[in-house]
Amino acid sequence: MRVVLHIQISLDARATGFDIDMGTHYQLAETFEPDGVISGADTFLAAPMPEEVPEWSYEVAKNFPSCSRSIMAIVDSKGRVRNWGGIKKQPFWKTPVALCSRSTPKEYLDYLKREDVDVIIAGRDRVDLKKALKELRSRYGSRTLRIDSGGTLSAIMLKEGLIDEISVILSPCIVGNPATAHFINPAVSELPEPCQLKLRHVEEMENGLIWLRYDVIKKRKS
Q: Which fold does the domain 38-142 belong to in CATH?
């Protein structure tokens, strides 16, 4: 499985605090032809999915072929996401999947069963992302997974060597606010040394945006 982190950032590497060109963001995201998307629970807690889906959502989804086939995997070992009814109704993915661990409360797993939500159990105290990705590939045939989440999940996946490509849309602005989020959470990444990247694509776009694509150079295990 190939995992792509696709993100729009400011010149000072912030993921929030500025206007994001959502149209360009998702048009470029579609070029990866993802079979699935992975997000953290915090992403869905910050912007809960409504039970009533607006009509425009269906029109937008028609422009993105991946919506008709992709999974939406949400990492939620603690069982915090409680609006799966609304998540299931969204036209932007075909199959929502909860990624849990053996420590996930039984009450929450029972709730997911009642909601008829697919569940993957991987790991003991927290979700073992490597095992979860293998199960996503085995169960759903996923070959390309796009990270659509905050900097914490991205940092963890980078630290664990699970990201193959980083796609950055660089916006012509500087946020200059320390309270805004990094696209890779430095408090979580704790990399023993810098992660080396290989540039594979540069493209200047409208409105001063620059699209950069990097392969993540992974060290061979001895």
A: Dihydrofolate Reductase, subunit A (3.40.430)
